[in-house]
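Q: What does the assembly look like in three dimensions?
Context provided by user:
Components: two
Sequences:
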Amino acid sequence: VNETDPSIALADARRVEDLVDRAALEDVCRSFFDLFGLPIRVFASDGQLLASVHAQRALCSLVNEGERGREACSRVVGEVQARVPGDADVVHRCFSGAAYRIIPVHYDGRVLGRIVVGPYLPAEQGAPPEALLPLLPAGSELGPALADMPRVRAETAERSARHISRVLDLLLFSGHRAFLTGQLHLRSVRANYRDLRDKTERLQQAYDKLKELDRLKSNFLATMSHELRTPLTSIIGYSEMLLSGIGGELAGEHREFVQVIRRKGENLLELIANLLDMSKFEQNRLDLADEPVQVGALIDDVLGTVAPLAQKRGVSVDALVDPALPAIRGDGARLRQVFQNLIDNALKFTPRGGRVSVRGERAPLAPARGEAGDAGLVLMMAPSEGLRITVSDTGRGIPEAEHGRIFDAFYQVDGSATREHGGTGLGLSIVKRIVEAHAGTIHVESRPGEGARFIVELPLERAS
Amino acid sequence: LQLDFAARELAIKLVYYGPALSGKTTNIQAIHEAVAPAGRGRLMTLDTRDDRTLFFDLLPLHFVAGAGITVRLKLFTVPGQVIHNATRRLVLQGADGVAFIADSQKSETKANAAAFLNLRQNLKDNGLSADGIPLVIQFNKRDLPDVRSDAEIDELSAQGNEPVFKAVATRGVGVLDTFFGLLTRTWDNLEREHQLKQKFKLDRDELLGTLREQLGLTGERP
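A: Here is the predicted structure of the complete assembly.
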């Protein structure tokens, strides 16, 4: 983490060329040249030429025609380039009387380079220095060459120097700012990415651990259910034998007690069967039969088994099942479990004098998948037909907030109902899984005090 | 700290830390205004349209101390908003001293504590420790109503380790005290670690005097 690059950690700027785009610098120099007519060059602190805009002047061409002039000229140019100004500008004079102004490039208290403006003729300069003449080719016309040189007053030279200084300072500052912004942005994105990656890794580990625990739990449930069932079968079997009189006739109270033992044993067996089902569902190990199922007949059968209980509780049961319901393909025993459970529940939660109704009909099914705006909606959402079985009661109803959760394993709306009516909280969860395994849906419509309607929809044809 | 013996330069990084909107930027703006132009660079702010610091603010100061040593002070602020933690951690890298700018309003007490815990964590992540790094605390916004009382702050700061300053940064009050307090503490720590006196012939009080003089800060006593 500790990457203390001074250019970032200390926002240290040491090189002009790191902060300013070369082409932009050249453009600024071009603009300076166009405005003031003065040649300009920018050098880095190590002497590297960064930008240069100038035009060959007649005087310089003239000087460079002769060998001595050429030598003298290149000596001056070398001196100018080598001259490092301190805090203030320096003016370097050429033997021709022309001047170069050397301007330090300050940034953040450091000199990062220099600007050289010139050659130009100071306006105050009178006749050309005498030293110039011997360096020119014989018979040269000095007049036009001097007229071609830009003439600048000291004050103008000073002002143009300040101008370019400020412009360059602004360029450096903007470049520095952009550099720091970019670097910091990049680094914080990288750091954020690292943080998120670490967090994701930790979450993944936690998730894997939980998944493993869940698998262990399901295994445990399956094993335990199996192990519990074996002795329980014996308990039920022996109580049945006792009841059948194999061990001798039972006296009144004895018979009653043994009946309780058998009934509770059967309750327990059912509970264990449910647990076993749940664990099979959770491990996707439930094998469903694929056979023709007459749902109408299944419902009739279930209604037949609950009739005595309904009568005892004083709840009326009515059924309206279309006799022409077509058969669907599925697991008859499992589907029977679905209707048995729903009707048992309805009876359980309906008070004396209430009514449980079962309806079975052919109905168009809402497509299970697809939302408005999906691609190919018209193809994917063609209506399909199915069976709709509705089990309604006149019980206390279910608050809307609970509608989604009553199908969760072990969830019960109200603990007190369980104590009153028994049950494991697994029934609806298993029902939902069986229905879904048949590509169907189940949902509840209910409001407190107005009873509940459980609606199961099963497709006639299952999509492959 | 960056020591450049060849260039006879040393650079010190001071970071202004604290919860969002506690006045970190206002502090260094006030320093910027107080310092003579020759001794400062441009104040660089990287903020969003609503004036919240996005990456940091930077105020570079420089002066020449005795024996011709150029001393560079880099004053940074961090972005206070919780989501910018990665940036805070980055800005804290290489810090030589930290000024924690707290908001005096009672309602901000929790935010101050949370920001301080965040500072400790980020120091740790940068291989530093809150006990080791020179630290000063400023209670800013003393002019607002419903602030923590002087008596309470005085009593608690007497039990703590760090110098505590009170400020109204919008009016520049207490800003330079905090700055010099931080610099003094930071220098003492650097002196212990790097023997600056021996290497550069730099003495703390002389240095602070030069700083005041060259940056035009002679008006206010530390």
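Follow-up: The interface with chain A takes residues 2, 11, 13, 39, 41-42, 44, 46, 55-56, 58, 60, 62, 70, 72, 74, 76, 84, 86-87, 89-91, 93-94, 125-127 of chain B (CB under 8 Å).
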